[in-house]
Specification:
The protein contains 15 helices and 23 strands. By secondary structure, it is an alpha/beta fold. Helix 1 packs across helix 7 and helix 2 runs antiparallel to helix 4. The structure holds nicotinamide-adenine-dinucleotide.
Length: 487
C-alpha cells in the first residue's frame, strides 16, 4: 500500500516513530494509503532544514525566487490530471471540480504571489530638513502553515505561495484527512528545483504534529486555516510566544435573495453556493433568506434543483456531488439533520443517504443535498457551522430584518446578496458583518483583495498586499540628513 512520507530538506523521509495513519478513500470507505504519523521530532527536523535554508532563500533576488515558484506552478499545471484524480480520491469531491477549480487555482496561487513580490513597494517618508524614514519589509524566518481538508492543495498553496515569495522558508502541515496532493507537491518541488529545506511538509495529526509546529520556538509565524475551535487552541498556544498568527476559520454564511433579484441567476448561484464540494467550502451559504413575497415559489424551485443534483462516484464525469470527506463528517451532518428535526424543522428534501449508489461506493460517506425550513434563526442548526450539504431556508419581510438575521451568528466570513437594486446592494453590503460580501454572485474573487473573516471567522487578512505584509516584518529605518549648518 502506498505510503505518504514527509518531505524534509528536499527528500522523502519516513516519520521518526515509524508509525503511519490509515488514509481512507471517502467514496468507498476503504483504506487506500497510509500517511506518516509524525511527531515533534519530525517537526524539529523540518524546522532545522527550513532554518538552514532561510539565509540563502531570503537573500536570493526576488526574480530568482519567482522563477523557482513559476517552475513549480508549471509542474502543477502539467500534472493537473494526476493531481485532480488524487484529490478526488483523497477527498471525495467530484473529479470535475478538482480538475476545474482546485488544482488550477493551486497553480494560480503560486503564480500570483511569485509575481506579486516583483511589484511590491515600500514606503519612504521624507521629513523635510531632518531626514528620511523608510520601511524595510523583511521575511521573518520559518513560517508554519497548517491547512484543512476541504480544498487541500488550493488552501495549502494559498499560504505557502506568499510565504515563499517574500523570502520565508516553510514547514507545512496538511490535514491528515487529505494528505495526498501535498505529498505530490513535495515531489514536484524536487523536479522544479526548489532548494532543499525551502518547503518542508510534515504529515500527521493536528494535536501532535500540528501542535509541535505551533509551539516550536524557531517558528515565528503561524498561518492557519481550519475550524474555529482549533483556531482558538492555536491562538492560545502561540500567544505566550508572541508569534505572528493568522487565522482563517469557520463560517455560517447568509445567502440573501430579495424579490427584485434576477431570480434565475439567484437560483443558479444559490444551488452552487449551498452544495458545491458537498457544502464543504468555508464560503458556502448555509443560511438562505428569501423575501416573503417570493419565498414559496423560489424555495420550490430551489428544492427541485437540489433533488436533481446527481450524487455519486466522484470519479464519474456526470457527478455533481461526491462523498463527504470522512465518517466523522458524515456522522456530524447526520446528527445536525436529526437536531433540525428535533428543533421543529421540516426537511424539504434530502436528509439521508442517497439511493442508487454504485457497488464501488456502497460503503462511502454520501449524504443527499438537504433543505430545511421552519427553523427559528436562533436555533442551533441556524447558529452552528455544519459544513455539509445542508441549507436552511427562512423568509424575511424587509431589509432591516434580514440584516439582523444575517448578523445574528458568531461568525462573519462571507455573504451573498441577490438584488436588482444597486442602492440596496451597497447599503446591505455595508451593514453585513462579513469579511467578504458578494452581490449577485458567489465565490468570485480577485486575489488582490484582502481575504479573511470577522468575529469568530478569523483574525487578520491574507490575499494580495495583506499576505505580503503578513509574512514580513516591517522595520522602520530613519536616516538623519544633517542640514548645511550641522554638517
Ligand atoms: P480542523 O480545525 O479540524 O483542522 C485544520 C488543520 O489543523 C488540520 O491540518 C489539523 O490537523 C490541524 N490541527 C488540529 N488541531 C490542531 C492543534 N491543536 N494544533 C495545530 N494544528 C491542529 O479543520 P478541518 O476540519 O480540517 O477543516 C474544516 C474547517 O475549516 C471548517 O470549520 C471550515 O469553515 C474551515 N475553513 C476555513 C476557511 C477560511 O478561509 N476561513 C477555509 C477552509 C476551511
Amino acid at each position: 500500500m502506498q505510503r505518504i512520507l514527509n518531505h524534509i530538506n528536499g527528500q522523502s523521509v519516513e516519520p521518526v516513530s515509524g508509525e503511519y495513519l490509515d488514509n481512507v478513500e471517502p467514496a468507498t470507505g476503504k483504506v487506500y494509503s497510509q500517511v506518516a504519523d509524525s511527531d515533534g521530532r519530525d517537526v524539529d527536523a523540518a524546522v532545522s532544514a527550513a532554518r538552514a535554508a532561510f539565509p540563502a532563500w531570503s537573500s536570493m533576488p526576488a526574480e530568482d525566487r519567482c522563477a523557482v515558484m513559476m517552475r513549480l506552478a508549471d509542474l502543477v499545471e502539467k500534472n493537473v490530471d494526476a493531481l485532480a484524480r488524487a484529490e478526488s480520491v483523497d477527498n471525495g469531491k467530484p473529479l470535475s471540480l478538482a480538475r476545474s477549480l482546485d488544482i488550477p487555482r493551486a497553480a494560480k496561487n503560486l503564480r500570483f504571489f511569485a509575481t506579486a513580490v516583483l511589484h511590491a513597494r515600500s514606503e519612504t517618508h521624507p521629513m523635510e530638513g531632518v531626514g528620511f524614514n523608510y520601511t524595510l519589509r523583511q521575511p521573518r524566518g520559518v513560517a508554519g502553515i497548517i491547512s484543512p481538508w476541504n480544498l487541500p492543495l488550493y488552501l495549502f498553496t494559498w499560504k505557502i505561495a506568499p510565504a515563499l515569495a517574500t523570502g520565508n522558508t516553510v514547514v507545512g502541515k496538511p490535514s491528515e484527512v487529505t494528505p495526498m496532493t501535498a505529498y505530490m507537491l513535495g515531489e514536484l518541488c524536487v523536479e522544479a528545483g526548489v532548494p532543499p529545506g525551502v518547503l518542508n511538509i510534515v504529515h500527521g495529526l493536528g494535536a501532535q504534529a500540528g501542535a509541535a509546529l505551533v509551539t516550536h520556538p524557531d517558528v515565528p509565524t503561524i498561518a492557519f486555516t481550519g475550524g474555529t475551535a482549533t483556531g482558538a487552541r492555536i491562538a492560545s498556544d502561540a500567544a505566550p510566544m508572541f508569534k505572528k498568527v493568522g487565522l482563517e476559520l469557520g463560517g455560517k454564511n447568509p445567502n440573501i435573495i430579495f424579490a427584485d433579484a434576477a431570480l434565475d441567476a439567484a437560483l443558479e448561484g444559490s444551488v452552487r453556493s449551498s452544495f458545491a464540494n458537498q457544502g464543504q467550502v468555508c464560503l458556502c451559504g448555509s443560511r438562505m433568506f428569501v423575501e416573503r413575497s417570493i419565498f414559496d415559489a423560489f424555495v420550490g424551485r430551489f428544492v427541485e434543483r437540489a433533488k436533481a443534483l446527481k450524487v455519486g462516484d466522484p470519479l464519474d464525469n456526470d457527478t455533481d456531488q461526491g462523498a463527504l470527506v470522512s465518517k466523522v463528517q458524515l456522522d456530524k451532518v447526520t446528527q445536525y439533520v436529526a437536531l433540525a428535526r428535533e428543533e421543529g424543522g421540516s426537511i424539504l428534501c434530502g436528509g439521508d443517504r442517497p439511493e442508487g449508489l454504485s457497488d464501488r461506493c456502497k460503503d462511502g460517506y454520501f449524504f443527499s443535498p438537504t433543505v430545511v425550513s421552519q427553523l427559528g434563526v436562533g436555533c442551533r442548526v441556524n447558529q452552528e457551522e455544519i459544513f455539509g450539504p445542508v441549507v436552511t431556508v427562512t423568509p424575511f419581510d424587509h431589509e432591516d430584518q434580514v440584516v439582523e438575521y444575517a448578523n445574528g451568528v458568531p461568525y462573519g466570513l462571507a455573504a451573498s446578496v441577490w438584488t436588482g437594486d444597486v442602492s440596496r446592494a451597497h447599503r446591505v453590503a455595508e451593514r453585513i458583518q462579513s469579511g467578504t460580501v458578494w452581490v449577485n454572485c458567489w465565490m468570485v474573487r480577485d486575489l488582490r483583495v484582502p481575504f479573511g473573516g470577522m468575529k469568530q471567522s478569523g483574525v487578520g487578512r491574507e490575499g494580495g498586499d495583506e499576505a505580503l505584509r503578513f509574512y514580513t516584518e516591517p522595520k522602520n529605518v530613519c536616516i538623519r540628513v544633517p542640514g548645511p549648518s550641522q554638517s
